[in-house]
Amino acid sequence: MSQELVNQTTSGMRPYPMEELGRIKANLIKEGRPVYDFGTGDPLIPTWAPIREAILNAIPVISQYPSVRGVEPLRDAQWTYLNNRFNIQKTPDIGLIPAQGTKEAIFNIGLCLIGRGGKKHLVYPDPGYPVYRASALYSGGIPYPVRLTAENNMRIEPWKLPVEIQQNTAAIWINHPHNPTGATVSYDYWKELIAWCHKTDTILLSDDCYADIYDTTFDLSPTTDLAKDKRPLTPLQISSDRVIAFMSLSKRSGMTGYRTGMIAGDARIINSIVQARANFGVGSPNFIQAGSTVAWADESHVAERRKIFSHRLKLAFPTLQKLGLTDKIPEAAFYFWCKIPDSFKGNDVKFILALADEGIISSPSSWLSEGMTGFFRLAMVPDDEATVAAMEILTRFVKKHS
After folding, report:
1. CATH code for the domain of 384
2. 76 pLDDT more than 90
């Protein structure tokens, strides 16, 4: 009789997309070929010097276990950020806890919510972050992807889902600005969504990883009128009841490798999560918390990063538009969601592998979704010189295959 050494969830898990892109990139480097990596959304921008200095200065002589609650200066800095960026005040209704990056927080939240009141469905956007699905599966839940299209304005409208799904959804993931398309939503959408969550007793999980990466022109007219603020919103600005927001320093402050973020929202839920996370063992090292404290408290370095991302998007856009791959610059995040050239007949994997042979790494839509083909994502993380060179290669490649 055969033995199963791991459970079916583990053995059936699909390869993680970024790991596959890393393998392709490594092979190109091994062959000594130039590589232009637009695949993984890991920006090549130096982390702000004061952040690095704070980390170095905080490395202790004696290492000790960190608390999952985080040190008080970090929590204070996170409240400062919520107040400065979103005008969210510190109240007993809102709880806050640091996270060791949002990836683990997004994964682990399923362990805390799936099964509540007998509800087992986890609704999430498709295409979207692969960890949403993994969280549902490992938590014993039922994944329920909702396809995002131009017809639904790249947003989930849960009030249109089958009644039995609405009744049995433990939590719903919303990600705007959206990875991989950069789509945003309005204040009115957030209000309607929150009202639906209250009506159906569904926990709203907002992946706000890209909330601070947006068109730089939006900084010129900040306002407390949420209906008129063009910057990305978080649903916590409207309500904390059954709302949990996940925020990260990865894209905002260039701390992807440091693994640091936070969870904020309904204090009733956060208080239970604090107890649960003590069992997960995911407190960030105190010296990382020191760097995070500096990062959350400052907005100037984030504004500079926005300028860089906006510039890179504008640098690549004329080529992508001319080739018919996209027709607009996204208002937020730093991704282009592009059409596969007609000559590849919607075969996105075939396209990105052929393009990789030319040294350009990108992400096919089928690796970022559950069956969507015909698109590919370009993460605008290379510098100007590499971007210009890659656009020249892409132009020759598309014309060659047209």
Report:
1. 3.90.1150.10
2. yes
**pLDDT surpasses 90 at 14:** no
* Confidence band, pLDDT 50/70/90 cuts, at residue 2: low
User: Which own/partner contact pairs does 385-391 have at CB distance under 8 Å and 24+ positions apart?
Assistant: 386/36, 387/36, 387/312, 387/315, 387/316, 388/315, 389/34, 389/36, 390/36, 390/38, 390/359, 390/360, 391/315, 391/316, 391/319, 391/320
Measured distance CA(178)–CA(187) in Å, rounded: 15
- The answer on 207 and 113 residing in a single domain is yes
Asked whether residue 33 falls in the same domain as residue 88, the answer is no
1 part of a folded domain:
no
Q: What is the pLDDT of residue 17?
A: 66
pLDDT the model gives residue 1: 47
CB atoms within 10 A of CB 30: 8
Residue 308: which of 390, 212, 195, 231 has the closest Cα? 212
Query: Rounded mean pLDDT of 180-191?
Result: 96
Tell me how far CA of residue 177 lies from CA of 61, 234, 370, 398, in angstroms.
41, 10, 20, 29
pLDDT of residue 43: 85
Tens of pLDDT along 344-378? Answer: 988 999 999 899 989 999 999 999 999 899 999 99
**Residues 6 or more apart whose Cβ sits within 8 Å of residue 180:** 127, 128, 335, 337, 363, 365, 368, 377
Q: Are residues 290 and 179 in the same domain?
A: yes
Boundary of a domain, candidates 299, 323, 351: 299
Task: Assess if residue 3 is contained within a domain.
Answer: no
| 243 within 8 A of 194, measured Cβ to Cβ | yes
45 DSSP 8-state letter:
-
Q: Which pLDDT does position 282 carry in this prediction?
A: 75
Model confidence, pTM: 0.94
Domain count, the chain: 2
**Are 70 and 105 in contact, with CB atoms under 8 Å apart?**
no
- Token pair in block for residue 271: 């208080």
Nearest to 334 by CA among 311, 300, 358: 311
Q: By C-alpha distance, which of 62, 132, 67 is closest to 280?
A: 67
